[in-house]
Specification:
Blueprint (H helix, E strand, L loop, with lengths): L1 H10 L5 E8 L6 E8 L5 E8 L8 H18 L18 E2 L5 E6 L12 H17 L18 H14 L9 H9 L1 H12 L6 E3 L8 E3 L6 E4 L6 E3 L1 H12 L17 H15 L5 H5 L1 H21 L12 H18 L1 H17 L1
Antiparallel strand pairs: 1-2, 2-3, 3-5, 4-5, 6-9, 7-8
Length: 365
């Protein structure tokens, strides 16, 4: 591995001598390393080397095209804002293939901390602010320049159509055991798919969206706990602003793990939702249209049903996409997300009032 990393560093023209590297194990898809170089004076600088999983990301060149355009745009328009810096080879590419045809990229290391889960309202608000600011920074960016690297990624209607088509086919003989889950999804199918139908009809603006707005995709200052930069830009694509918001609160405001088998522990935390709202809407309130603001809660519901449908679809078709730890793992995930979605629906009026209050507060400021 030392020889491979050394060659990758040389391809990206990194100064100094390779002195150390360590694997970073908190990612589930790509192989990631912290790599340190030392110069003649003894000073050291660290970088992040990533070998991209091309099974999951089948179009890595398109991904890096999107990342290059987005990060360059932010850096040029907001010179004082921190953004990810990916290095380039002598021929101007921000990626390189090694001798084994593996796909690599290199970015600067940012000394920071991340939060997989968080109960601190200030940090949750800061997370919302980080994702809101990211979207605001790209408000004038022409999303048509970006590749749709995962077509129909958040097309909820299509996801649901696919689920019910596979349920009809029943390729693994599992459908008889999931009738309750299918019935529950069917009961909200039209409501969950409504935003994607309206988006396809042109009722919402095409935004540049992150599409993986988990709290651990924000780097924070170790001391101040202020957000430094949004990371993991592999799924940056054109999309709906509301789904970035919805996916974030689906993750942050769930009182249980994504695969909690005890559904009594699963609920949607309105205080965490309120904290994220304050941060996110405080950044984007003047940029979003009223229909977008009015659809934020519905987006949280829709994206949660969408994820439940993806877990159930994977279970029905033989667990080919999501990594599982036991045979019914995807079914447990399905039930957890459905319980969360139904709690969002139950609290919809209260949540929409929180959105309105956050928007009014942002307008007043």
């Amino acid at each position: 591995m030392f020889e491979t990393i050394s060659k990758i560093g040389a391809a990206f023209r990194l100064p100094g001598t390779l002195s150390a590297y360590d694997a970073i194990t908190n990612g589930n898809i790509n192989a990631t390393y912290r790599v340190t170089y030392r110069d003649e004076s003894g000073s050291s600088k660290s970088y992040v080397f990533q070998r991209i999983n091309t099974v999951v990301f089948s179009n890595p060149v398109q991904i890096m095209h999107n990342i290059d355009l987005v990060t360059s745009y932010i850096r040029e328009k907001f010179p004082n804002a921190r953004t990810l810096h990916f290095h380039h080879t002598a021929d101007g590419k921000n990626y390189v293939f090694d001798a084994d045809d593996c796909f690599w990229r290199v970015m600067n290391w940012v000394d920071s901390v991340t939060f997989n889960t968080c109960d601190d309202p200030a940090v949750i608000e800061a997370t919302g602010r980080a994702f809101g600011r990211f979207q605001n920074q790209l408000a004038d960016f022409d999303g048509a320049q970006l590749f749709e690297t995962i077509p129909d990624f958040h097309n909820t209607k299509k996801r649901l159509d696919t689920l019910f088509a596979h349920a009809e086919a029943d390729p693994c003989g599992r459908v008889s055991g999931v009738q309750a889950e299918l019935s529950q999804i069917a009961s909200v199918r039209e409501k969950a798919g409504a935003l994607s139908v309206r988006y396809a009809a042109g009722e919402f603006p095409v935004r540049v969206t992150h599409n993986d707005t988990k709290s651990n995709n924000v780097l924070f200052d170790r001391e101040t706990k202020m957000p430094l930069v949004v990371i993991d830009l592999d799924t940056v694509m054109p999309g709906m602003a509301m789904y970035d918001f919805g996916d974030a609160v689906r993750f942050i405001a769930n009182t249980a793990a994504e695969d909690e088998p005890d559904l009594q522990k699963v609920s949607f935390d309105t205080e965490k939702f309120s904290a994220f709202c304050k941060g996110f809407i405080g950044e984007v309130a003047n940029g979003l249209t009223q229909p977008e603001l009015d659809s934020l809660v519905l987006a949280a519901f829709s994206v949660t049903v969408e994820l439940a449908s993806r877990f159930l679809d994977d279970y029905i078709t033989g667990d080919k996409y999501f990594k599982i730890n036991y045979p019914e793992h995807n079914l447990v995930r399905t039930r957890c997300q459905l319980a969360l979605a139904m709690d969002i629906l139950k609290k919809q009026e209260e949540l929409e009032q929180i959105v309105r209050s956050s928007a009014a507060e942002a307008a007043a400021n």
